[in-house]
Amino acid sequence: GVIVDRLDVRRVVIATQAASMALAAALAALTLGGAVEVWHVYLLTGLRGVSLVFDHPARQQLTFQMVGRDELPNAVALNSGLFNGARVIGPALGGAVIAGAGPGAAFLLNAISFLAVLASLRLIRPAELLPLDRGDDRPTLVAGSREAFAFLRRVPLAGLVLGTVLLVTTLSFNFNVLLPVLAKRTLEDGPEVLGVVTACFGAGALVGALLAAAISRASPKLLLAGIAGVGVAELALAPQTTLAAAAPFLFAAGLAFTLWTSNANSTLQLATPDRLRGRVMGLYFFAFNGAGRPALSPCSASGSSRHACARAQVR
Fold first, then answer.
1. Alpha-carbon distance 4 to 138, whole Å?
2. What is the pLDDT of residues 12-68, one digit of tens each?
3. Are 214 and 74 in contact (CB under 8 A)?
4. Which residues contact 47 (CB under 8 A, 6 or more apart)?
5. How far is Cα 28 from Cα 281, in angstroms, rounded to an integer?
């Protein structure tokens, strides 16, 4: 986050997306060549994590520059909707590709998909982005980090939102691990059911994103309502043993999940000054991903490959 606050965020995102494409291509090449081993996945996962810690705060800054304060809650919600929409389409697409050409082809399509992202980033006109008020000082690593923590202590709302995200994601946000286990052990089925349960969660998340976008404002009350909804949905899901019974609670969990995460993201960004946003959103990324989830692998980059990887875990 400190480094992102010193650099041109559009160029940072271009660099991180190019790095992600290279890692996805390496995974595809290893898989298609039949040479992939566990240590390859560990290495690519570590490198992917390095890329992500630069990508996330820079991407949040870039979103702010594109839309401004008034439209930020809407933009964050729509971005979440696009991401979760892939969870609905991805299982079917990934399953079709795997059935027809194998998992290596799904990983290859994932790598190719980054070309569209890079082309879009290159087409952005920097002169039309909103300027950032970063001041004249270039933060150092230690002093810049200290300044971010001082801000969180000084602004209770920002500190409370970040602390809430850290607590909830650490204890409750493990769907990428639990859904394959739910499909395999509780529902006693394989990849096909995993696709269905993932799609149910993704469909709920998509509806939640559209709802948050329609509301178009950051609200601590909606954040708390979303958190409560996730908790209730998880409690209701726990005793279910059939797909038909689990599906509505997965949908509800997805809806509540997107509602609270989009509100948490928007509230934190709007409360943070431009010069600190990279650092604060870097802390948000750690709270959201680093504390609550296992390391993100290179196959988590897009819909088709993510579901191919999940299907491999089930098998």
1. 11
2. 999 999 999 999 999 999 999 999 899 998 999 899 999 999 999 999 999 999 998
3. no
4. 19, 23, 298
5. 31
